[in-house]
TrEMBL record:
A single Gene Ontology CC term: nucleus
Taxonomic classification: Eukaryota, Fungi, Dikarya, Ascomycota, Pezizomycotina
Compartmental location: Nucleus
Protein name as catalogued: Xylanolytic transcriptional activator regulatory domain-containing protein
Comp. bias (Polar residues): 76-89
Organism: Clonostachys solani
One Gene Ontology molecular-function label: DNA-binding transcription factor activity, RNA polymerase II-specific
One example of a Gene Ontology biological process annotation: positive regulation of transcription by RNA polymerase II
Amino acid sequence: MAAGTLPLALTLELQCDLKYPQCSNCEAAGTECLSYDLGKQREIPRDYVESLEAQVERLKAEVQLLGSRPGAVPNNEPSSSEQASSATPHSDRETSSELYTSLALAVLDPSDEPRFIGTSSGVTLAKAILGSLECDMPASPSVRSSQEPNMNVLLPRSSPPLPSKESATYLIDVYFQCRTPHLPLMERADILTCVHNAYLAHDNEAATVAQRKGRDVFVTLMIFAISCCGLKGQVGRGASDRSESFFHSAVQCLDSTVGTAANDTKTLTDILLLAQYVSLSPSKGNLWTLSGLALRTCIELGFHWETNLALRVTKAQLNERRRLFWAAYYFDRLLVVTVGRPLGIEEQSLGAGYPEPPPAHPSPEERHAQCVANHIVRLARLEAETKHVLYRQQQTAAVAFPQPDYHTWMEDIKPRLEQWHADIPLTQEAHPASIYASSSWWGATYSHALLLLHRPTPRVPEPSPASLRICFEASAKLIECTQTLLREGHLDMIWVWAHRLFVAGLLLTYSVWNSNELRSSLASEKIVNVGQVCASSLAAVAERYPKAAGCRDAIESMVAATVRRLFAPQNRAPTWPVGADSGTHQPDGFWPPPQPDHPDDFMAGIYSLLPEDLWVVGQGACQGLGWPILPDDNDRTVPWRELDESSLQFGESMPDSG
C-alpha cells in the first residue's frame, strides 16, 4: 500500500494487514479495497494495474478470434471498394445502354466482404442504433470485476438467458406464423442455424465473449422478442414481460454485433429486426431513426435498383437483397402515411423486383406469407403515389414535375386500387393464427387506403358528394373491422391503429356535417352507432397506448356534438349567415362547426396530437403533408392555402406498382 491508505481501515480505525488483493478487513466487510493515488488524485483499486493488463489480454484474444473467422479479408487482398472500382470499366462496356447504372448502384458486389458502414468505422453506426433505443442498459462492470484468469475471457453465468429448446421451437413457429404484420427478413433455415449456435455458446462453459454475445445470440433473442409480441393478445401480460426481457438481453449483445458483422447485409438485417420489434413496442425505441438507417444502408448497398450487373448473384442472395430492401421500404412508407414524415426515397428511384418464396420446400404458410408481403408492399407503393400527388406542395415548377392532370390520374388509380383488393391472397391459405387469415385486417387496411384517396387534401380541399359518401362508408368499415380486431386480440401496431381510428372518426363526422345527401339517406341511429363504436374503440386503444388519450377525447366531443345536432328539434341545414368580413355563403347542406363544451380541454386534446415526438397520431400536424389548418375555427369562408399546380404532377416515370 505504497500509494495511500485504506479508507475503510482509517474510518474504522483498523490496521491494514496488506493482504492482496484485498485486506482482511475489506474482505470481511464485503467492500472493494481501495487506495489513494496521488498522481490521479482519486481512489483506485489496489489491483488496478493488473486489471488493466487482464483487459488488454482479453481484447487481444477477441481480435485474434475475429481475425480467424472464415469471412475475414487478408490485408493483401483488395478491399470491396477497390474491387468495385476495378470492375467499373468492364461493367460499363457491357451495360453501355444503361448510362445510369454507375450512378444508381452504390456498390457492385453483393457485399459478402466485411467492411464498416460510416465515415470512419462501425462504432458510429452502433452508437446511432443504441441512441435510437429506449431501454435501461445494465451498469458497466467495475475494473476489478472484468479481470479474468486466462485468455479465454470467460463470461459470468449472467449471460443473456435463453428459454428451453422446446419453447424456442415454439417461438420460431410463432414468428413464421405471422401473428403480427411483419415482412419476412430471414429464411427459417438461417434462423435455425443462429438458434443452434446460440444454444451451443450458452451451454459451453468455455465460451468467449464473441460467442456468448455474438450475432447468433442477438438474432435468436430478437426473434424470441418479436414472437412474444404476437402472443400478447393470447396470454396477456406474461408475454409482454418476456418480450421485454428478450429485447433487453439482445441489446446487451448489440455493441459487439453491429461493428463486427460478417458483411453489411447482416448488419442491415440486425437493424430491421430492431425496427420490427420497435414497431410493435413503440416505447422501446425510435422507429423513424431505425427505418432511416435501414433505408440509407439499402441505398448505399445498391439494393434499390437492379441492373444486369446487380443480378449476377445467386437466387438466394437476390431474394435476400429484395426481402431486406422492401422491409426497409415498408417501414419508411408506414411512417410517411401514418405520421406525415417525408419520403425516404422517391418512387421514381426504385427498380427492385419482388422476392420469391423460399425454394427449399417451404411450408404452404411460409409461401403464402411471402406472397402476402409482396402484396402489402404493392399497397404501400399505391399509398406513396397518392401521397405524392395529393399531399405534396412545391412552390416552383420544374421539368421533372410537369402540370398534372388530376382527373386522369384519379381514373387511373381507382381501378388499380380495386384490382389490389381483388387480388388479396386467400385467407384460407394462411396459418389460422396469422393476422393475414383475418378478413377484418384486410378490410381495415383497404378502407384506410380509400380514405387516403378520397378525404380532403391540399389538392382537393372540398371533396365531391361521391367522395364524401366513400369516406363515410370506408370510415364505418374501418371502425367495424378495428372493433373486431380488438375483440379477437389481433390489434398489432397499436399506434398505427390509434391513428387510423382517429382519422376514421374525423372523416365520419366531417362527411355527416358536410353532406346533406348523407344525412337524408342514412338513418340517424346508424350514424350515432358508428360514432359511438369509434369512441369506445379509441378508449380501449388508449388504455394500451396512453398517447391516444387526446384522440379519444376529441372524438368523444365531436360524436357528442353530432348526436345533439342529429336529434335536435329542427334538424335541417341552417342558412349560413354572411359576416361583415365574409362575402360568400357556405355550400348547401353544411352544418355549422360543432362547439365543444369545454373549449380549453378540447384544444388541449387536439394539441396533444402535434408531432413533438415520433409517436403522435395527428395526420394534420404537418402542413404540406396533412390537412391545412384554418386560422379561425368559426370562419368557414377562409379558403384553403393556395397550391402551386406544378407540384401536383406525379410524373410519367413512376414505375408500375402492380
